[in-house]
Amino acid sequence: MLILFYLSSGLFLGWSLGANDAANVFGTAVSTKMVRFKTAAIIASIFVVLGAVSMGGGASATLGKLGAVDMIAGAFVVALSAGFVVYTMVRLGLPVSTSQAIVGAIMGWSFFSGTLVDYSALIKIVTSWIAGPILAMVFSLLIYYIFQKLTQKIHVHIFRIDLYTRIGLIVVGAFGAYSLGANNVANVMGVFVPVSPFKTIDFFGLMQFNSTQQLFLLGGLAIAVGIMTYSGKVMETVGAGIVKLTPQAALVVVLAHSIVLFLFASQGLHDWMRSLGLPGIPLVPISSSQLVIGAVVGIGMVHGGRNIQYATLVRIGLGWVYTPVAAALIAFFALFFMQNVFSQPVHQQVPFEFSLEVRDKLNEKSITIPKSLWKYQYPTAVACRRALLDEASMDHSELAIVMEYAKVELLKLQDPERFVQAAVKDLTPEQINAVVALEGETYRHRWQLGEALRAESDSWQITDPGQTSQHENELNLVCEIIHRQMNLKSP
Amino acid sequence: MLSLFKKTKMLENKMDDFLDHTSESSMVFYEAVKHYFLGTEAEFKSQVAKIYTLEHEADTLRREIENQLYTETLIPESRGDVLALLENTDNVINQVKGTIADFEIERPEIPPEYTDGFLKLTGFSGQAVDKMVKSIRAFIRNPQGVKDWLHKVYFYEKEADNTAENLKRKIFQSDLPLAQKNHIRYFLRQIDSVADRAEDVADRLAIYTIKRSI
Q1: Min distance A19 CA to chain B CA atoms (Å)
Q2: Domain layout of chain B by residue ranges
Q3: Chain A 391-420, CB below 8 Å of chain B: which residues?
Q4: 8 Å CB contact of B76 and A157
Q5: Smallest CA–CA separation between A51 and chain B, in Å?
């Protein structure tokens, strides 16, 4: 029951997202009365849920990498802060990105807990935020151009164009809602994935509905409620955006926006590109509002850019800066209150130490730790890093390796059944068996668990910490799941 | 979904019908004026009756189209333009009907030496209406083609103006009584006004076309 209370902040965030972002998909269609609000709301709700449940996983994993919020109370505060920022901005009528709010809030958590920020993940996310709107702009420019040439060649009756546009707005809107659910449910429920209270449901052995999917279903439903209850108001005002759009232009904008959202959410496409040796499109939650702006600018450019209201564009751009900053600040202070006023732990103490085992391991890699650092246990990653920088001279990559080895995290598999449930989608049966075989064993460092798994089964080919590989991701997953289960057991 | 396609098809047909009525009224107009001058009363009456029917049917069609456009909130971006277009096109038919009604009621006495001039004027006015209808058809299917017709509307309107002016000059230089001169002048102006109404539609169409291409 408590966990459902904690989930409520995620649901609130989902509601805000639905209220705000459905307007990106159906705004012009509704404000120009091409599609009735009721029709738009029903279609958007259904497809958001479908997208969230069937394709929500990819972007969620990236968000988890940025900052692994490791206590449920922390996740609650993070989602609540992001939701608060989004809600306030929606109330003020400012364009806002849920993705930026949640990333800001996670950063706030990282600063508060003294966890080192995974800058590679952050850079990936921020670059996607820039690349997304640019891609949307390019797509809308191309699609609009083709659209224009086609209508000049094929002479369609003005009423027929109207009919096709209406149908197009509904179909593309459904695709947009699906992509929105797939890409943005990570913002809403991503932080709760490892602590999901749900059990896998088996439909007569034909199909499984795992706990993450159930969580995403809940997130999708929260978004749907936001669409039904509040998005109408936002849709009415969206017409007065940076340029006034005709329904045909709106169709192009929504299509371009949806394609980009889909690209940044599709695990299948990502894997396929990787299999061709191409760099896979990162699976990152991106701002639907920013994509729309990019696409609208694209159309403005077809007309020589004379219709674009640059002042509005700058105002929106500023919002993109202060959303994450505001979310980070609010999360930071809210975490402080949660921890000190309500006495709820919002993050795990992850100490660092240079014990004999750690030093031996590092010696194998020809890294020596100065004697002055041996006797201390450092309470946070930030403290340990500072000490290393002060006392030892090592480069960036060595520092990363040392930090990985020195990190102390007690790992003990307590509930094999739940573990199997949580991991069944991402690990092979052999890998899961190897983990289950270690039940009852306790490890002080992640790399020790890795070594034990490697000894247990050939399916675990763990590489050294710090080297990104499929197996390391899998090991991280195992640790995440074990961590959260331990947290659940001992509140 | 199927009914949506059906409804759209019906609306398209109504629009086409409305334009057909407009175009036909201009042809019947010419025939009616011709029979008036020839003195073939039976034919004249039948043409007058035809124009009344055409005008009445066009009114009904226009109202139906306008109703549907409003109640189903169709073409939100161009609705105002299309409605104004319908109203103005309707003014053309009304002008045709009004002129013919005046012929029938007032029976102006026009000396035979002016017959050719009057028929020429009616012909030019009719042509202006015909080209106007073609430009509207282009507007609803192929906005790029509108300008090909607009300049023809302007051409015939100008020809009509010139013809009317020449006729007026001749009439007022003649020895006819002033009352008759004035009466004939009134009919000249009425026929010329048909072309003017067509020109009004063309002017609006030029703007709407630019709007649609943005």
Answers
A1: 25
A2: 2-213
A3: none
A4: no
A5: 25
> Looking at CA atoms only, how far is residue B141 from chain A in angstroms?
4
Q: Is B19 helix (H, G, I), strand (E, B) or coil?
A: helix
Phi, psi (deg, nearest 5) at residue A202? -105, 125
Phi, psi angle pair for A462, to nearest 5°: -70, 130
Whether residue A247 lies within 8 A of chain B, CB to CB, comes out as yes
In Å, how far is A35's CA from the nearest CA of chain B?
Answer: 9
**Dist CA A287 CA B24 (whole Å):** 57
How many Cβ contacts (< 8 angstroms) between chains A and B? 41
- The span from the CA of B159 to the CA of B154, in Å, is 9
Per-domain boundaries in chain A: 2-340, 352-406, 411-489
* A159/B77 touch (CB, cutoff 8 Å), yes or no: no
The CATH homologous superfamily for domain B2-213 is Phosphate transport system protein phou homolog 2; domain 2 (1.20.58.220)
Cross-chain residue pair B141–A163, CB shorter than 8 Å: no
How far is A451 from A395, CA to CA, in rounded Å?
26
Contacts of A239 (CB under 8 A, 6+ apart): A27, A28, A31, A32, A245
Nearest chain B alpha carbon to A36: B73
Owner of token pair 């609306």: B11
Of A208, A225, A227, A213, give the one whose Cα is nearest residue A185: A213
A244 touching chain B per CB within 8 A: no
Total-model pTM: 0.80
Cβ within 8 Å of residue B143, ≥6 positions away: B209, B212, B213
Say whether B82 and A158 touch across the interface (CB within 8 A).
Answer: yes
Q: Is there a contact between B73 and A33 if contact means CB atoms under 8 Å apart?
A: yes
Local confidence pLDDT in tens for the 491 residues of chain A: 677 788 898 899 899 888 888 888 888 888 888 888 999 999 999 999 999 998 888 888 777 777 677 778 888 899 999 989 988 887 776 767 888 899 999 999 988 888 777 788 888 888 888 899 999 999 999 999 998 888 888 888 889 988 999 999 999 999 999 999 999 998 888 888 766 667 777 777 677 777 788 889 999 999 999 999 988 877 776 554 555 678 888 899 999 999 999 999 988 888 888 888 888 788 888 888 888 888 988 888 887 766 667 777 787 777 778 889 999 999 999 999 888 888 887 777 778 888 888 888 888 888 888 888 777 788 888 888 888 888 877 777 788 888 888 888 888 877 777 777 777 767 888 888 888 888 888 888 888 888 888 888 877 776 555 555 566 667 777 777 777 666 554 43
ipTM surpasses cut 0.85:
yes
- Spell out which chain B residues touch chain A, with contact meaning CB-CB distance below 8 angstroms: 1, 4-5, 8, 11-12, 15, 73-78, 82, 139-142, 144, 214
Given an 8 Å threshold on Cβ–Cβ distance, is A152 in contact with B8? no
